[in-house]
Amino acid sequence: MNDEQLLRYSRHLLLEEIDVLGQEKILASHVLIIGAGGLGCGAAPYLAAAGVGQITLVDHDKVELTNLQRQIMHTMHSIGKSKVESGKQFLQQVNPTIQINPIETKVSVALLDKLLQGVDVVLDCTDSFSTRHLINASCVKHKIPLVSGSALRFDGQLSVFDTRNLASPCYACIFSPDEKFEEVSCASMGIFSPLVGIIGAMQAAQALQLLIGFGEPLVGRMLLWNALNTQIDQIRVTRNSDCPVCGNT
Question: What are the pLDDT digits (tens) for 200-212?
Fold first, then answer.
């Protein structure tokens, strides 16, 4: 690290769990964030501020007025722009020393096969069961750790799926791809503004733990946050040996 980096990241360097070695791992890392909406807006700024060397943002949507209640990377001036370009502009202001790759498209198997070749951690910040299953299957295939978050109304969920660990479940171990879940969204159900920031920031924290290799990420556990009563619960989740996605890996 140069002198400017030593000063910029000095508060990380004071933490013995991170120190110079950990910060250098952050600087050399590449994180893929799928979804530049509420959760992505909560996670990406902290990863950028922490010095993640390369962040790739994938989202096909454009910024709308209704997004501004919670999606803090976007402003009135962003309305009509792609979320990934708006996000890039915001993150470059947070930390101009890192690389931001905006990809304005829907996520697909082909795209993930291409992107995951050089990615260290994936953050699923989407709001669709079908998309989550697609991302999960690709992460299992490429053995890339996945930090999965969700938020709706006043309820948030967070877990880490890292099938490099033989004991780790994948998303499909908990939510079977064969089950038919009703797709619901904040557009119809509503969303408490700070909730996406809370869960998104937790996703960033989990990603940094995975990148550096300290602490105990939420592998085999699912965190449940209820913003109505400010209650946090955890449930244990185990690998399903008959899982159609990771059962034979």
Answer: 999 999 999 999 9
Which tens digit of pLDDT belongs to each residue from 46-104?
999 999 999 999 999 999 999 999 999 999 999 999 999 999 999 999 999 999 999 99
Helix (H) / strand (E) containing 38: helix 38-50
Q: Which of 205, 186, 208, 207 is nearest to 195 (CA)?
A: 186
Closest CA to 128 of 70, 59, 80, 226: 59
On whether the CB atoms of residues 71 and 80 are closer than 8 A, the answer is no
- Please provide the CATH number assigned to the domain covering 3-236: 3.40.50.720
- Domain map (residue ranges) of the chain: 3-236
Using alpha carbons, list the distances in angstroms from residue 223 to 19, 70, 83, 150, 167.
Answer: 27, 21, 28, 11, 18
Residue 36 sits at φ, ψ, to 5 deg, of -110, 30
